[in-house]
Amino acid sequence: MHIIKKYVIKNAGWKLLSCVLALALWVLVMTIIDPFTTENIPVRLSLENKNQLTDNGYVILNESVLLNTTITVSANGRTSKLNELKNDSFISYVDLKPVDLTYESRLGVNQPVSVYTELIKTDFSEIQLSWSPRVVTLRLDKIVSESFPVTVDKTDPADEDSYLADVYCRPETITVTGPRSYVNTIGSVRVAIDLENESDSVTITAEPRVYDGNNSDITGQMIEIFPEYVEITAPIFIHARMQLAAESSGSLPADHFLSGLHMDITSVEVFGPREDIAGTDTLVLPPVDLTDRTESFSVEYDINELLSGTRLIVLDDAYKSVTVTVEVERFITKTIEIPYDSLVIIGEEPGASVGEKPGNIFLTVKGMREVINPLNAGNITATLDLSGLTEGEHDIPIRFNLPDNVSIESPEPFVKIILAELELQEIEPQEVELQEIELQDLEPQEIDEEPGSD
After folding, report:
1. pLDDT, tens digit, for every residue of 270-287?
2. Which of 22, 119, 148, 164 could form a disulfide with 189 if both were Cys (CB 3.0 to 4.6 A apart)?
3. Is the CATH number of domain 338-419 2.170.120.30?
4. H/E run at residue 154
């Protein structure tokens, strides 16, 4: 022990001086060769615990901005250590877990959140870090879904003889999902189709586009649509002329008749698919019911309603309806006096005689006014047919040559005819005396020629 102490104390000043010089030399070397310095390193910002928002139906409106934000990290330390640093040695992030989601008023507005930066490798723990910016802005919004009708923008066929009917879309609506602030700006969902060169009906699959209130296309801007495609059916029609036919049903009261059934139009021009137009030439209107009708009346039909079960349509407003006028009249009666002497007797039998000669015939007839009014005794023939009568008394009806649809309202007139048996008288034969006639010979006589004859 004594020996060790002797060596320690011996030349202690020089030994202490040498330690001080060694330390100074080390400090000098470290300061010159491996000094402290600061280096700025760019680090891309990341988002931690994002599922905290998405699982609760929220979305970061400025997510792309945040993910493209560069955090400048200032690292202070020995040059030898800093030289080993790389971009992936650090992580700069925003922790979304503490974000308060309980206030709707915070949605869609800027919220400041802190930025954190850490060294990933532990062997760089002696390096001091600072970074900028230390706060960034976060904008949150609620994810909502809303249905919108699909509007079809189309160009008409160039063929003037063709007509583009109502285009329909399947499905008629689509669902748009996205931030509420985006969905609320949607003005329309549209599909564009070009039919200029089409001549027959077509079905097209198209992708809807979403437009805001200013008619700017915002498709794909943080919004999703479902379904992604719709099917558009564009019926392209041709035209044809169709005849109209009116019918009636039911029965009028006994003393009335149908005098006319008229339509204000007799044909219409219809449009429809080529396969439906072929062979279509007549449209039969629903029957007009005449039951208990005592006066003329009219019925109007909407032609497009009658065609609703087909793919045909009438375009001209002047021909979209047809009016059927039903003329109902009452039968009239008239009594006509026909002289007995004007009777025409057919097949008169020998021995027939009139039992009691009647007076003039009074005939009451019923029918349409325009038929009954002109009738008189002069244009009515009354006949009495005696053909084939046998012996005895007979009541022979009088027949009249009346126009069609005219009926006799008065009792049927008749004439009593008596046919008596004819007596045949025997004629006795009489003798006839024949006398002989003598023939005398005649002498030939000369005939004098007249003067002047040749």
Report:
1. 988 888 887 778 999 999
2. 148
3. yes
4. strand 135-155
